[in-house]
Structure formats: C-alpha cells, structure tokens
Design goal:
Helices cover about 50% and strands about 15% of the residues. By secondary structure, the protein is of the alpha/beta class. The chain has two domains: about 45 residues, no CATH class; about 180 residues, Flavodoxin domain (Rossmann fold). Strands 1, 2, 3, 4, 5 and 6 form a six-stranded parallel β-sheet that branches. The chain starts with a helix and ends with a helix. The N terminus is likely disordered. The structure holds flavin mononucleotide.
Length: about 230
C-alpha cells in the first residue's frame, strides 16, 4: 500500500513539472482523471475491507434489524461491503451455555477481526442492552474490538432511557478493547416504521443524526484501516 502511495506522489510530481505543451496538458488531464478514479477505488475498496453490522434483538421482526438493513443499504450505496449479523444467527444453546469454541463463534470472531468497522444496534431492555447481545459478546475474545471503530445505536420505547448508550452499551464495548466509539444514536421505536424497509426512519432529526455519524464512522474506519494496513 505504502509503495502505491509513493508511486502516486511521484506521478503527481512529474505532472506538475511537465506543464509546457498542449500534448502534455492532454496527457496530464488523462492521468489526473485516471488517478482520481484510482484514488476513489483505493480509498473505498482497498482501505475498507467491509463493515460488520450487528443486530442485538432476539425478536424476529425487530426494529434493530430493520435499522441494520437500512444502514447496510446506505453503506453499500457508497460501494462498501457490509456483513450483517444478528444474535438470531446463533443457536440459543451456543449462547446460553457460553460455547466460545463453537465454529459459529470462531467464524464470527474472524469476521469481526477482518472488519474495518463495526456497527452495533441493540434494543433497550430493562434500561440496558439486550441480554441476548450480552450472551454473544460474552463469548467473543476479550480484544475482539481492538483497533475497530464502533458505531453504537439503541432503539428504545422511552425517552427516559436516552442515556443507555452511554451508561450500558459503551462500557461493554470498551471492555472488549474498543477505543474509538462514536457518540451513537438513540432511536425511539415510534420513529422506526416497520412497514417501510427502504426508508424506515420517519423522524428527520434522527435520520440526519444517523447520516452524519455514519459518514464520520466511515471516515474514521478508513483512517484506522490505512494506519493498521501500513503497519
Ligand atoms: C423485555 C422488554 C423490555 C423493554 N425495556 C425497555 C426499557 O427499559 N426502556 C425502554 O425505553 N424500552 C424498553 N422496551 C421497549 C423496546 O426497547 C422497544 O420496543 C424496541 O423497539 C425493541 O427493539 P427491537 O424491535 O429491535 O427488539 C422493552 C421491550 C421489551 C420487549
């Protein structure tokens, strides 16, 4: 990766030096647009492997999974791959009995290890994240979120638990070695329209918070991935 960057810089320098003839100008234009396209590809596809988006709801038609699906399509529209995951993907006895060496847990840990960033969406249950999400996170390796930016979201029925992201979810993520955790978004369940899969968020302010933080999350993911790839 570092070598490619040096080569790009070198070509850019050559282009700056040879400014004279019209032929050179045409060549410069051609190379600059080629470089632009390459840079876009490099930033979006090479630096970002994929994003993992996890739903922590045990309910089959949950608002959390609808939000995961919404974020997935927003990210994929930017040309970035997303792997969706849900607590429902795992056998209940694997989670309840804490089978940390089960193949499905190994596979999931590997998926997380290879991700450029992780999104976690949990419903608020009894003023905190869901117990199902906790059973899954409990059996993952302790450093599973090391060097991964995390974008936490929670869906709750009451405004009273607005701070559940800060006092329950973020400490849990930090315990799994997450260092870069975004502010996060709390979504009231009445603003998630289960019947509108493509545009499920009916409240403009919430939609805009999610869009802004998603943009920040992808930028941070890109930066952290470029640093870890270079090392
Ligand atoms: C068992 C249970 C406990 C809940 N506890 C709370 C709570 O303490 N605070 C709150 O704001 N909402 C609470 N809710 C409401 C859910 O957070 C809300 O309906 C949310 O949309 C569920 O997300 P889901 O559809 O992704 O499962 C609770 C719901 C259930 C089923």
């Amino acid at each position: 990766m570092g070598l490619i960057c040096i080569k790009i810089q070198t070509i850019k320098k050559i282009l700056i030096l040879k400014k004279s003839s019209s032929e050179n100008r045409r060549l410069r234009l051609l190379l600059t647009s080629g470089l632009g396209a390459f840079n876009l590809f490099y930033e979006r596809v090479i630096f970002l492997s994929y994003i993992v988006a996890i739903s922590g709801s045990p309910s089959s038609e949950s608002r959390s999974s609808i939000l995961v699906n919404f974020l997935r399509s927003e990210i994929e529209n930017k040309g970035i791959r997303v792997k969706e995951a849900s607590v429902l993907d795992f056998q209940p006895d694997v989670l309840i009995q804490g089978q940390y060496d089960h193949p499905s847990i190994h596979k999931f840990s590997e998926d997380l290890k290879g991700a450029s960033g992780i999104i976690i969406i949990s419903p608020v249950y009894k003023a905190a994240y869901s117990g199902a999400l906790k059973t899954l996170l409990d059996i993952l390796p302790q450093d599973v979120f090391k060097d991964k930016p995390l974008f936490p979201l929670m869906v709750g029925g009451s405004q009273a638990h607005l701070l559940a992201i800060d006092y329950s979810l973020k400490p849990l993520l930090a315990a799994l070695s997450a260092q870069t955790i975004l502010k996060g978004v709390y979504v009231l369940d009445k603003y998630v329209d289960k019947t509108n899969i493509l545009h499920p968020i009916s409240e403009e302010e919430i939609r805009s918070k999610i869009t802004i933080q998603l943009g920040q999350f992808l930028e941070i993911s890109k930066k952290i991935s470029s640093i870890t790839n270079a090392n």
